[in-house]
Write a structure and sequence with these properties.
single chain, alpha/beta, 3 domains, two-stranded antiparallel ribbon, 9 strands, about 15% strand
């Protein structure tokens, strides 16, 4: 997720008005808070904002299935409370390809004298957003986020987004195209974006730029990695059941070659630990 979250955070913080409106229930974000939570490990929430009504909003971006997501969100919640003395409203914005299946509640045992822990957060699949509405928005961030929503015609959507980017000032145009290429990797659409951009003369100077050329290659490589990891996860889940959080974190760092090597070994491995040792 680290490959994409910088672009998504920038889009949501500086634009993405329609998406934020839906996530916040219409309450404006007064300011964004950059917060690191020092512990044995450094923990940084993806987006933490103070709303116009004084409440806190925590938005977490997730592109993979994490069996420990409810625990992670509970940890974030308590750490935010420790820092600010207020519980945040928490929303997980899921931008991955597989169906959203992560648990959104965490419950502890109760006793006659104690109701026990009861924790929950909201989970929203970006594909539940209307891509047409995002494309019609005057906000360029909404337009680009539309590439992640449910698409009926991928090529047409990419063309419409590029047409909006083409209207920007040259420096903004190059930055926006780079962001679009990065987040398009979440839907394996980097090559579609590149082909369509090369067909529009306004983008020719940008596409010939060596720096952006490296970004395009990087985006395509990211797409390859995501594809291989998707296959690997399915094989692992079929062989060993749900993937625990520690294993998910480990395979998220793998290259294409490492993922391919593990996929070959899945059927012969005696356990998940044996596979990932």
């Amino acid at each position: 997720m680290q490959k994409y979250d910088i672009s998504l955070k920038l889009l949501l913080r500086s634009s993405g008005a329609s998406v934020l409106h839906a996530l916040t229930g219409g309450v404006a974000v007064g300011k964004w808070l950059d917060v690191e939570m020092p512990e044995v490990r450094n923990t940084r929430v993806d987006l933490l904002g103070e709303m116009a009504d004084g409440n806190l909003l925590h938005i977490e971006l997730q592109s993979t299935h994490d069996t420990g997501m409810a625990l992670r969100m509970a940890e974030y919640c308590l750490r935010v409370y420790r820092l600010f003395g207020r519980f945040p409203r928490q929303v997980l914005l899921y931008v991955g390809q597989p169906p959203l299946l992560m648990a959104t509640t965490l419950r502890g045992p109760s006793t006659p004298r104690c109701a026990g822990l009861a924790f929950g957060y909201e989970a929203v699949d970006i594909r539940d957003f209307d891509s047409e509405r995002l494309l019609e928005s005057v906000d360029i961030g909404d337009n680009m986020i539309a590439v992640l929503a449910a698409l009926r015609d991928q090529r047409t959507v990419v063309r419409r987004i590029l047409a909006r980017i083409a209207e920007l000032e040259p420096t903004e145009r190059e930055a926006a195209l780079g962001q679009l290429l990065r987040i398009a990797g979440l839907r394996e659409l980097e090559e579609v974006v590149e082909r369509e951009a090369r067909g529009m003369p306004v983008f020719n100077p940008i596409m010939d730029n060596k720096v952006l050329g490296r970004e395009i290659k990087r985006g395509i490589e990211i797409g390859r990695v995501e594809g291989e990891l998707k296959i690997l996860r399915r094989l692992m889940e079929t062989r060993f059941g749900p993937i625990p959080d520690w294993a998910e974190k480990q395979i998220a760092r793998y290259s294409v070659e490492q993922a391919e090597s593990l996929a070959v070994r899945v059927l012969s491995a005696e356990s998940l630990e044996d596979l990932l040792k």
